[in-house]
Each structure stands twice: as C-alpha cells, then as structure tokens.
C-alpha cells in the first residue's frame, strides 16, 4: 500500500505541475507547451513539457515532467525525478532518483534508479532499480531489482537474466514462468479484484461478479457521457474554450484560486440562505447550479487542456481525448480523487471567472455617457 500511495502521489504532483508550472517558471526552469518540444540546451533546473511529441536529451539538473503522445527521455548524466505520461513513452537514462511513468506503451531503462513506478497497457522494464512497482496489461521484466518487486498484471514475462534481491509480489490470476535467477520461494501470488481490493486465491472476500459488472457499466457510462458533454460544449461555446486556451499560461493560477474559493464558499452561502425565509428559493437554485457546475468542471478542464496540448488538432477530437483521459484517470483508486480535485478546481474557477468577466463586460457596456450642459 505504501508503494501504491507513493506512485499515485507522484502522478498527482506530475499532473499539478503540468497545469501550474507556467506560474513558477524561473531562469533555471524551462516550461514549454507546443506541438513539438525539444531542448535547445541543458536545463539547470526542472524541465516541464506538454506537447504532442516531447524529447528531453540535452541534460536536466532538476526534475523532468513531460506529457504528450510520444515522450522520449535519454541522458548519460545523473537526473533527479522523472515523471512522464503519454501514448508511447521511452526512458533510457544512466542514473535517476525515481522514475514515474504512465501511458499505453512504456519502455523504461535505467542503469541505476532508486525506485521505478510504472502503469501502462504494455510495460517493458530493464536496467537496475532498488524497488519497482508495475501495473500493466502486459509486463516484461528483464532488469535487476535489488530489493522488492510488485506487479499487477495477468500477463507477466521475466527475462532469462532478470533478478530480484527481495520479495516478488504478483497480483495475477496466472502464474508466471520464472527464470532460474529468481528464487520461487520469494514469490507470492495474490488474486486481484476491482478497485485494487485483493481477494485470496479462492476469491474469498472479493466483490460479487454482478456488482463488478454494474460498477463497470456505470464507469464506462460516465466516461462516455463526459465525452459527449465535451462535444456539446465545444459546439455551443467554442469562443470560451479558445479564450481559456489562449490565456492558459497567464490565468491558470487565478482560475485555480477562484475554483478553490468557489468550492468552499458557494455551499456555505447556499446553506445559509436556506435558513432564511426569503432566501430559500435562491439557496435551492444556488445549490442546484453549484452541483451542475461541479459536475461539468472536469469536462471544462479536459476540453481546455485539449486546446492547449493539441493546438492543431480538431477542437472536438482534442477535447474528447483529454476529457476521456481525465475521466479514466479519475477512476484509479486514490489517485483518481486527486485528479478529480485538480480538475474540479480549475474547471470551477474557469466557469466562475467567465461569469465574472461577462458581468463586468455588461456593466461596462451599460454605461451611458451623460452630457453636461
């Protein structure tokens, strides 16, 4: 559980940095949002990239954060933490403190890493690491793990030279073929179940199959509904999302702060109004509006991020992709709670900021010049 929390916390930090790094940019740090992101030279501080294609290969003195379709990180020197996500992720470094990666296809190698935490459809891990945690549809382990290895996958393949100095814990319905270099007495198999709650080998304590199916249907329906809402909002309010995307780097902190204030203050005001005679209808309407905006907030966040990350892509496709990814990430235990919170803060702040701006605009337009005689 400690390793799971560490992985999810690191991914949360990665998501937060990607959304707010523009506000903390310094001379030593480099932050870039564009279609293709490549280093011009060595970065002394942190390097943060949100791009369709990101390549970091010129040296980074601090941490590396990258999000995109194709992400490549290579370095012959020592790096700090690496947190990357994308459809295709390739990491090949000499020395790193910790490596956090999530995506569809992950290929990670480090000659020396303290911890490696990976989540993807297909994961290949080589090199040397102190500890490793892998969640994958298919996992190929061909490295040297000095201490403990934890894998959640129904398709685990070990290389002939793979070694593990400590314990190996595999959450899977199938037993993997172990090479001679791994002591089978150090390997423990556990049967996985939904939401990371483990049942024993006889599935004792696992959720009933019917409940799991109903839960899965609701989860898929939620993702599909969010994507459809994104398409509708993009069709009816394209100017809102284009404006938010254009000013994302300048206004992201303001939107997050407004979102935090709105999430805290609006329910308090709504409840307070319910205790007054004349304020009950207003309180009910405010509570209903709050619930609707809170539900739409992650959709707004994903749609804006789609415009920011995939500038040249069709606005409907970019919004649908990012909203779908956000909703899927929100389903991950523990981590999903933080993703939902971050998306709600920004989305709520963006909507509140737009209402405030339009109200101010109407007031300005309503001003009638008075001629003094």
What this model shows, in words?
- The protein has 373 residues and is α/β, with parallel strands linked by helices.
- The chain has helices at residues 2-20, 209-236, 238-246, 248-274, 280-309, 315-329, 335-366; strands at 30-38, 47-56, 64-78, 81-145, 149-152, 156-158, 163-164, 168-171, 187-190.
- Strands 1, 2, 3, 4, 5, 6, 7, 8 and 9 form a 9-stranded parallel sheet that branches.
- The longest helix is centred in the last third of the chain and has 32 residues, at 335-366.
- The termini are far apart.
Key phrases:
2 domains, 7 helices, 43% helix, disordered N terminus, nine-stranded parallel β-sheet, 373 residues, alpha/beta
Quickly describe the structure.
With 373 residues, the chain is an alpha/beta fold.
Cα-atom Rg, whole angstroms?
Answer: 24 Å
Number of strands: 9
* Count of spatially separate domains: 2
The largest sheet is: 9 strands, parallel
| SSE order, one letter for each helix or strand | HEEEEEEEEEHHHHHH
End-to-end separation in angstroms reads 78 Å
Summed up, the helix count is 7
Provide mean pLDDT, rounded. 79
**Class based on secondary structure composition and strand pairing:** alpha/beta
Assembly type: single chain
